[in-house]
């Protein structure tokens, strides 16, 4: 059971699951930071700077986590999946190369100026640096999603002697699922960040922070979520339709449809059983799956039995999909209701703040669940129809992979704990900090001296 | 001009350049990590030392991603082969990089009682990363074998890289610090420099002794006259730096940039020496750059992008270093 293939898959899944948590926050958080900074530059209201300075520290921390876990990924191709580059290197190579060249350096270099340069450059250059980091993170998403989408729905290439050669770069990059996946992921990043900001701000408010900063941040985050959550449902639906067209077996697994049928029900719950090829304990709404997927009551949905031996593991895809959609629904309700209250100038009460705190990392869970749907849903292929996962794996001794896998798990568990613990410490510290320092209120706005706790050390980015 | 003969050479050049830039840039920040003094009363020194690398380390590590990325893209066969043999050292390297990278951010933000723990992890992570890199370098030179003799050589190489990075780190600190910490850095640089010289000499003697290929290359006439220049100049740089370090600090902090520049020269010469020993092999005695190279169309696609983008990267990298020039203490706000 636990052979090199399975362990390599689990290790890759663990690495990329851990990694994706941080870019998911950072892609959108950086644009939100830019918004705070521009607001400050425009209004000269120091509240925006105070918010910026709290969240830029969170950004720095998340960025470091993203960088180090991302470096791990770049080695994994060689250490665990040599067959991948040997077969599709002509496509994957340039896409990854452009990601490094256009995104990684941009974000990493300007990050230094963004975090530590506020007293050394003009406010404009600082805002510009923030913009460059935001562009860098989004470029990175663009390239890596182009590659991932290509693996799902390959296009623009031909096979010669078992190796893929590009015939059209345009078709490779803008392959059929790419626009949908990119939009879906960017909005997911926005939603994750919105609930992340809302959750931590709610924690501060509930712990007795009376300053303006967390209130303004909470309001911004709620409005952002209120716009993005329904938009995500819409884009997600489009993405699903696209998957139905190109990877019907994945949709069949998502919906738990075994036999091809017209007017398939939408299953709210079931336990799919791959042995007997049926579902147990089904609870469903008749005809709804067909209606959603084909926009016709009696539309035909292809069943898993049409793809026997060539479809993904059903249970994992089926449940992950329900987790993702479930969280999405909760997000829409919470975002709209709380935004409405905020819009009516009502302060959120205790249980409402608690709800937001509980949902702080809900975006993470939804994003992971969504990625499991799409990536497990691609199995048994690594590149759909081109390269099977089992054919790409290394011949490394199982013991080596087991050792590395277990150590990664321990390191990641420790880091995740430290990350969340540190966020909590930072939030708690910020509660006792004064809203403004006299120095901060200087007219130029960019001579913001650190900081509320005067003995803070040099390594700290601005503000608390 | 841009064809399947020249493109692999261009790409090994680009990759080599990335490795060299990585060794210099991440070398100094790893070195600073290794040198971190752990005494309870030295927290202030640690703060300044870490502040001196704060704005740069993210971008420095990106050069490693570029180097590994270029190998993956341009020489996938070599990438697979090398990392198959280096599975465990790579894994140790990665754990080291992860631990030190996050410790850097955690130490500044964590509760005070955890700070010292993160400092330890930062130091250990830096050391682990460096040792793993040295070991990998040794494995590369040995053509990936795990006999007792080659492991002994790899350990020597790990030691060599560790003192070399510390040397560079100390020289960086001479540039970025003042007063007592600067004096301390000068002493560190002196000792690391001497150890590094021993390391470089040991590796240079053992390498051609073990690799007959390398031996015949280095000592073939008439090239020998030319190639002996490299060790000679390298040795002179060591001696010159030693003499300079013993006279530092000077009034008005003159020559505080000297040691760093000299160590960069030493790094560059050692790198050229290594490259000369093995080119055109990307895996010594096994794969040449032409055998390992990707499809020529693929290389072209990246080449044109790289020609446009790399100068831009260098421009904004220089911009970032200019923003943060001068002493690291000025990163403090009081």
From TrEMBL, chain B:
Transmembrane segments: 6-25, 81-99, 120-144, 150-174, 186-206, 218-240, 260-282, 302-324
Keyword Thylakoid included in the entry's annotation: no
Highest taxon of source: Bacteria
Keywords associated with the record: Cell membrane, Membrane, Transmembrane, Transmembrane helix
InterPro entries assigned to the protein according to its UniProt record, in alphabetical order: Cyt-d_oxidase_su2
Pfam annotation, one family: Cyt_bd_oxida_II
Subcellular location: Cell membrane
Membrane topology: Multi-pass membrane protein
Major subcellular location class: membrane
Family: Belongs to the cytochrome ubiquinol oxidase subunit 2 family.
Protein name: Cytochrome d ubiquinol oxidase subunit II
């Amino acid at each position: 059971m636990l052979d090199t293939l399975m362990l390599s898959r689990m290790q890759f899944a663990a690495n990329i699951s851990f990694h994706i948590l941080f870019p998911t926050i950072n892609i959108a958080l950086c644009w939100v930071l830019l918004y705070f900074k521009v607001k400050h530059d425009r209004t000269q209201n120091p509240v925006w700077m105070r918010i910026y300075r709290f969240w830029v520290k969170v950004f720095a921390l998340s960025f470091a986590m993203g960088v180090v876990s991302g470096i791990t990924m770049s080695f994994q191709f060689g250490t665990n999946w040599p067959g991948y580059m040997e077969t599709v290197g002509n496509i994957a190579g340039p896409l990854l190369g452009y990601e490094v060249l256009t995104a990684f350096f941009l974000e990493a270099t300007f990050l230094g100026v963004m975090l530590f340069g506020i007293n050394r450059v003009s406010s404009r250059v600082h805002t510009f640096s923030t913009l460059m980091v935001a562009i860098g993170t989004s470029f990175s998403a663009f390239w890596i999603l182009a590659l991932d989408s290509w693996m799902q729905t390959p296009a623009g290439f031909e096979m010669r002697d078992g190796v893929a050669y590009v015939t059209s770069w345009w078709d490779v990059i803008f392959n059929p699922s790419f626009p949908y996946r990119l939009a879906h992921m960017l909005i997911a990043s926005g939603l994750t960040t919105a609930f992340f900001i809302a959750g931590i701000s709610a924690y501060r408010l509930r712990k007795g922070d009376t300053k303006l900063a967390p209130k303004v941040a909470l309001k911004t985050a709620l409005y952002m979520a209120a716009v993005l959550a329904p938009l995500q449902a819409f884009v997600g639906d489009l993405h699903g339709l696209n998957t139905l067209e190109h990877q019907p077996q994945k949709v069949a697994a998502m919906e738990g449809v075994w036999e091809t049928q017209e007017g398939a029900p939408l299953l709210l719950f079931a336990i799919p059983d791959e042995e007997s090829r049926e579902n147990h304990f089904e609870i469903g709404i008749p005809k709804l799956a067909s209606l959603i997927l084909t926009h016709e009551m009696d539309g035909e949905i292809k069943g898993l039995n049409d793809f026997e031996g060539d479809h993904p593991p059903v249970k994992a895809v089926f449940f992950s999909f329900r987790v993702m959609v479930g969280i999405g629904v909760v997000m829409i309700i919470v975002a709209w209701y709380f935004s409405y209250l905020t819009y009516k100038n009502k302060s959120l009460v205790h249980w409402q703040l608690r709800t937001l705190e509980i949902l702080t990392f809900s975006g993470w869970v939804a994003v992971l669940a969504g990625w499991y749907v799409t990536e497990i849903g691609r199995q048994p292929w690594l590149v759909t129809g081109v390269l099977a996962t089992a054919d790409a794996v290394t011949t490394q001794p199982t013991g080596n992979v087991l050792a590395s896998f277990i150590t990664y798990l321990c390191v990641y568990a420790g880091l995740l704990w430290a990350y969340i613990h540190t966020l909590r410490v930072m939030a708690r510290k910020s509660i006792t900090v004064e809203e403004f320092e006299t120095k901060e209120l200087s007219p130029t706005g960019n001579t913001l001296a650190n900081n509320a706790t005067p003995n803070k050390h040099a390594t700290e980015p601005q503000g608390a | 001009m841009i064809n399947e003969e020249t493109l692999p050479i261009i790409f090994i050049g680009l990759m080599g350049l990335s490795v060299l830039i990585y060794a210099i840039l991440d070398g100094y920040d790893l070195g600073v990590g290794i040198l971190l003094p752990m005494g309870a009363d030295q927290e202030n020194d640690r703060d300044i030392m870490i502040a001196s690398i704060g704005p740069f380390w993210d971008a420095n590590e990106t050069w490693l991603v570029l180097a590994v990325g270029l190998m993956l893209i341009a020489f996938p066969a070599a990438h697979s082969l090398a990392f198959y043999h280096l599975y465990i050292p790579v894994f140790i390297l990665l754990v080291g990089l992860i631990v030190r990278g996050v410790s850097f951010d955690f130490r500044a933000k964590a509760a005070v009682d955890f700070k010292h723990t993160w400092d330890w992890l930062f130091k250990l992570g830096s050391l682990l990363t460096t040792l793993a890199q040295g070991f990998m370098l040794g494995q590369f030179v040995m053509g990936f074998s795990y006999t007792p003799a080659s492991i002994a050589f790899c350990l020597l190489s790990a030691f060599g890289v560790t003192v070399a990075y510390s040397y560079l780190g100390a020289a960086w600190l001479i540039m970025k610090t003042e007063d007592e910490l600067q004096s301390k850095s000068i002493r560190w640089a002196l000792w690391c420099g001497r150890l590094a010289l021993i390391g470089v000499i040991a590796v240079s003697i053992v390498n051609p002794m073990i690799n007959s290929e390398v031996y015949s290359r280095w000592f073939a006439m008439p090239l020998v006259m030319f190639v002996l220049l490299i060790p000679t100049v390298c040795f002179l740089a060591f001696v010159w730096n030693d003499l300079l370090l013993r006279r530092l600090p000077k009034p008005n902090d003159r020559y505080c940039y000297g040691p760093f520049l000299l160590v960069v020269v030493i790094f560059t010469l050692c790198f050229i020496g290594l490259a000369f020993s093995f080119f055109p092999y990307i895996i010594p005695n096994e794969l040449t750059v032409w055998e390992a190279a990707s499809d020529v169309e693929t290389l072209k696609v990246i080449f044109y992008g790289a020609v446009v983008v790399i100068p831009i990267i260098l421009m904004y990298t220089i911009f970032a270093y200019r923003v943060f020039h001068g002493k690291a203490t000025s990163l403090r706000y009081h």
